[in-house]
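User: Okay, second chain of the day. Same drill as before: sequence in, structure tokens out.
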Amino acid sequence: ELEKMKKQKQELTGKVEENNLLIRRSVEKDTTTQDMIKAELAELRKRVEELETQFKELERTPGLQPTPGVGVSGRPGPEIRGQAAPPQEKKSPVQIEQDLYDKGMALFKEGKYEEAIAQFKDFLKKYPSSDLADNAQFWIGESYMAMKQYEKAILAYQEVIKKYPDGNKVPNAMLKQALAFYEIKDKVSARLLLKKIIRKYPTSRGVVHSFSGSEQQAYQLLERNFYLGFGGPVTFPRAKKLRRFVRSIPLERMLLETDAPDQPDISHKGLRNEPAWLVKIVETFAELRQDSVENIVRMTTSNAKELFALS
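Assistant: Same drill. Structure tokens below.
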């Protein structure tokens, strides 16, 4: 009797699942059919619940408790297996793609540059038309830069420029190419690239770190909406040109920096530079411009917030 009830329960459960599927498929197609199926489904569920109640009562009856490997009648019963593990949620193709890219980024952040390069190359092989393809190629270049393999970095950045000309990584790739050329002492190529960037992106903004150019270059950069950065060198009395710039250039277009651990100010000459020593640069600015320290701090802080969109 117990085995018969088990079989009936199994059959009814199967019908319940089948009717659930039919309801989902009939959504917004035939409301009459839906109502009929829902009524049948309710009846089936009721019968399953009744069978479960009877089944539990029979199990509590002495002598009818099933034992592993033995049926109610004493004959060998079906093998009792462990409960099946719930099926894992299947990832969408978009999520699989994102996970592969994120793995490359994680390797880069961990300093595992060779592995990051291999990961990004695998990503590009599998998803050559992905929205993240230009980013993956760019980070290959960044990995080579981190390993100081500048020639390979230049070639990797060139792939970004050539293959993804409309991508948002092109300006960064061009700039990083210029820096890589500078690192291998090819200043001519570096300068040409920087000029090309300025021509191609005339409305771009930025800051020229530790400016030490000519007065003509300074005003050309100001005309192109760039800011000029000044640090420790301006505190040395012999830096007459820089100190003249500090007096004449509008404060609204200047930023202060320490460039730590390099370029310490005159009072810390020969020591490892520290961000906390920015105070000496602020004081020098106030002295050269005959302004208050408070106003120098207020204006240059405002400049940084405006340029870098800081809150």
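The longest helix spans residues 31-60.

User: Thanks, on to the next one.
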